[in-house]
Write a structure and sequence with these properties.
Blueprint lengths: L1 H10 L6 E4 H10 L20 H4 L1 H19 L3 E6 L5 H9 L4 H6 E6 L3 H14 L6 E4 L10 E6 L8 E6 L2 E10 L4 E8 L3 H7 L7 E4 L1 H17 L1 E10 L9 E4 L2 E3 L9 E3 L2 E2 H10 L3 E7 H7 L2 H9 L4 H15 L4 H4 E8 L2
Parallel strand pairs: 2-3, 2-5, 3-4, 5-10, 10-14
Antiparallel strand pairs: 1-7, 6-7, 6-9, 7-8, 10-16, 11-12, 11-13, 15-16
Helix pairs in contact: 4-5, 9-10, 12-13
């Protein structure tokens, strides 16, 4: 029944068949009326994926100290902190906790959480209240928008991988788009390769020299360009942490996860997460076009190690009991592991300090 409702939303009318882009399919499956992000429990052990803030408190500690350092050096005044897709609010709680002794910083921060999922907003409010019965004023936004003239620090962890992509490949010097065919009456859905004749699309694809497989997210580029323009005008910093690449991998990266396991993109429609690797080269290009400075780019492992996660871990281990020691060490290992999140995830920091 759930699948049929989404298929109906995709084809609009009960036509015999319709061919749509993967971008359109993903958009409806994730963000439509019956989409995945309108469902509950998407994050955590009971959900379909678990993020670094949920794995280790030290992740949030390092991010909090990194932001505090840049505020003290570059700003020392009121600023807006935007978190894009804040999950269960864990990162924000860790950030506020690690900086609680710095009164000037805490008094200067205006907090905006950009979130569409109603269930997650409820979780965020509940968790923040559990952390502090008299929390700072926090505003929730469905979409990123300018609220005042203050400089901003924008943080996004595992946010940009969720933007829909279109998939293209070149065969015998001819560009094709991998699309999806829906036969509504049969509830059948399958991939279909279509030759591209649209001149605008071909012009865009031909800009990528020596590439025969491409994933392009126009919505991701547009969103990122918007926040770059915001920082360019008002000043501040953008921190993006996501799984992605600088050199194109030469294969399609679109994937889906259902109950914490890899799944088929065309299965479990509206009930599973669909993501793709982020093209950090594109984000860096957009930052440069908006006159932002590339403060930092590295693997998550390198960023966390360079910003003192092992020193922080050792400090905590000295006062932890055996159970806590195991949990802390396990969490840190996972988020810096070369074979896991440590190398797969990248960290990009862009800035403009007015």
């Amino acid at each position: 029944m759930h699948k049929n409702k989404i298929l109906q939303e995709l084809v609009k009318k009960k036509v015999k068949s319709k061919i749509i882009s993967i971008e359109k399919f993903t958009e409806v499956c994730l963000y439509g009326k019956f989409g995945y992000y309108n469902n509950s429990n998407v994050i955590g052990k009971k959900g379909d994926f678990i993020t670094s803030p949920e794995i280790s408190q030290l992740f949030g500690d390092i991010i909090g100290l990194f932001i505090l350092y840049h505020w003290k050096i570059k700003l020392k005044k009121k600023f807006n902190f935007y978190e894009l897709g804040p999950g269960k609010g864990t990162l924000l709680i860790d950030l506020l906790n690690i900086t609680k002794k710095f009164n000037d910083f805490q008094k200067s921060i205006n907090i905006y959480l950009v979130e569409k999922n109603i269930k997650l907003i409820e979780d965020q409010k509940s968790n923040i209240l559990s952390f502090n019965s008299k929390p700072k004023k926090i505003s929730w936004l469905k979409n990123f928008s300018k609220k005042n003239q203050y400089p901003s620090i924008i943080f996004a962890n595992e946010f940009f991988d969720c933007f829909p992509v279109r998939q293209f490949f070149k065969k015998n010097q001819i560009w094709y788009e991998k699309m999806i065919e829906i036969k509504y009456n049969e509830s059948l859905i399958k991939f279909k390769d279509i030759i591209i004749n649209d001149k605008k699309t071909l012009k865009q694809l031909n800009q990528y020299k020596n590439s025969e497989i491409l994933e392009i997210s126009n919505s991701r580029d547009k969103y990122f360009d918007k926040i770059c323009k915001h920082i360019s005008k008002l000043g501040g910093m953008i921190i993006v942490i996501d799984y992605g690449y600088r050199s194109r991998p030469g294969y399609f990266t679109l994937q889906s996860v259902y109950n914490n396991k890899r799944s088929n993109v065309l299965d479990n429609i509206g009930k599973q997460d669909i993501t793709s690797l982020v093209d950090f080269n594109k984000l860096i290009d957009l930052g440069k076009k908006n006159n932002l400075k590339i403060e930092h780019f590295s693997s998550q492992r390198e960023f966390l190690l360079n910003n003192g996660i092992k020193e922080r871990e050792n400090k905590i281990l000295k006062v932890a009991n055996n159970k806590q020691r195991i949990m802390v060490q396990k969490g840190v290992k996972r988020i810096i592991d070369k074979k896991d999140m440590g190398n797969l995830f990248k960290v990009l920091v862009l800035s403009k300090w007015n």
